[in-house]
């Protein structure tokens, strides 16, 4: 229960503005099932996610970006990906993720994948997105 509540306390830090896709997922390969693993393992998992998206699914991802606690005490590298919700859930299962973030019509949703929770609308994505270090 506490873990699910923590998933709701999120911000996204990216070197770009929110993608203008009508719908997309924010997916990570880091820390499967919310169990911390080494940074080296997380980086390998992230590369495998990139390969799966670009080679197997042939989609372009935006990222990396950081999903983080609002105080930045916890951070995970993530990708924004223009997939259907069903495809995004399949990718998340493949990479052992409890949940994904789904953005549709400007609204941010927390969507369960490997948990028995219900999807929750968290609000407008702009309220959770921090664009930093933008190329000028």
Tell me what you see in this structure.
By secondary structure, the chain is an alpha+beta fold. It has one domain (2-130). It contains 3 helices and 8 strands; from the N terminus they run αββαββαββββ. Strands 7-6-5-2-4-3-1-8 form an 8-stranded mixed β-sheet, with helices on one face. The model has no long low-confidence stretch (mean pLDDT 94).
Largest sheet: 8 strands, mixed
Cα end-to-end separation: 42 Å
Shape: globular
- Overall pLDDT: 94
Strand order of the largest sheet: 7-6-5-2-4-3-1-8
Structural class: alpha+beta
Strand content bin: 25-35%
The number of distinct β-strands equals: 8
Rg over CA atoms: 14 Å
* Uncertain spans: none
**Oligomeric state, counting identical vs distinct chains:** single chain
Count of domain modules: 1
List SSEs in N-to-C order.
HEEHEEHEEEE
Helix content: 25-40%
Q: Helical region count? A: 3
Short structural description:
By secondary structure, the protein is α+β, with helices and mostly antiparallel strands. It contains 3 helices and 8 strands; from the N terminus they run H-E-E-H-E-E-H-E-E-E-E. The protein has one domain.
Key features of this structure:
single chain, 136 residues, alpha+beta, eight-stranded mixed beta sheet, 3 helices, globular
List the helices and strands and how they pair.
Layout: H1 2-8, E1 11-14, E2 23-27, H2 39-56, E3 62-68, E4 75-81, H3 85-94, E5 99-104, E6 107-112, E7 120-124, E8 129-131
């Amino acid at each position: 229960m506490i873990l699910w509540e923590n998933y709701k306390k999120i911000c996204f830090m990216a070197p770009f503005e929110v993608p203008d896709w009508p719908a997309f997922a924010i997916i990570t390969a880091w820390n499967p099932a919310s169990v911390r693993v080494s940074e080296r393992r997380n980086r390998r998992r992230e590369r495998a996610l990139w390969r799966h998206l670009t080679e197997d699914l042939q989609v372009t991802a935006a990222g990396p970006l950081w999903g983080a606690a609002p105080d930045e005490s916890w951070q995970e590298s993530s990708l924004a990906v223009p997939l259907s919700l069903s495809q995004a859930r399949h990718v998340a299962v493949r990479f052992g993720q409890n949940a994904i973030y789904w953005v549709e019509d400007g609204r941010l949703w927390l969507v369960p994948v490997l948990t028995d929770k219900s999807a929750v609308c968290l609000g407008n994505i702009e309220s959770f997105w921090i664009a930093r270090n933008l190329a000028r």
